[in-house]
Amino acid sequence: MRHVISATVINEPGVLANVAGMFAARGFNIDSLVVGRTEDPGSSRMTIVVDADENTLEQVRKQLAKLVPVTRVKDFKGTRYIERDLALITVSATAENRGQIIEVVTIFQGKVVDVADSTMVIELTGKEDKIEDFVELMKPFGIKELARTGVIAMARGMQNGERAAAPAAKSRKRSIEAPPAPALPPS
Length: 187
Fold this sequence. Notes:
This protein is an alpha+beta fold. The protein has helices at about 15-25, 55-65, 100-105, 130-140, 165-175; strands at about 1-10, 30-35, 45-50, 70-75, 80-90, 110-115, 120-125, 145-150, 150-155. It is elongated and about 55 Å long.
């Protein structure tokens, strides 16, 4: 079964190696491992995607929580969450097929971020299966290069058992409006 796990870790040398080593010691193949800064400059968030049975993964979660530099562990199984993967894809493009490529990019809500004489670079975000489907559609055009970030995830809204925000915070949240879209083209 596929599991998406989030761990907040203290920024120290060797933390990534310790966490990856712990999964390797259990014989897990990590499908995706992403590490990035959080709102706190002293900590980072690791998002780990593994395929494992529930009993073995429970042992790993407990061991992960015991590692000194790990301050929080969350398995998103059974919760509502948002996950995204980012891909940059360089595709062969000619004057004849550019329109077709742009049409597929538009359908998938991607962006063309670079155009050259014989190639286009496309940026696409979404769930892993969306990225995989897009890559399959681009193969006939000729994929020159592909880079992906891996999965990042975050819980949606309030989950069961969480307390509601203070009334003042709620009213402030409602009064914030999104700024108008910029008039300049995207960079």
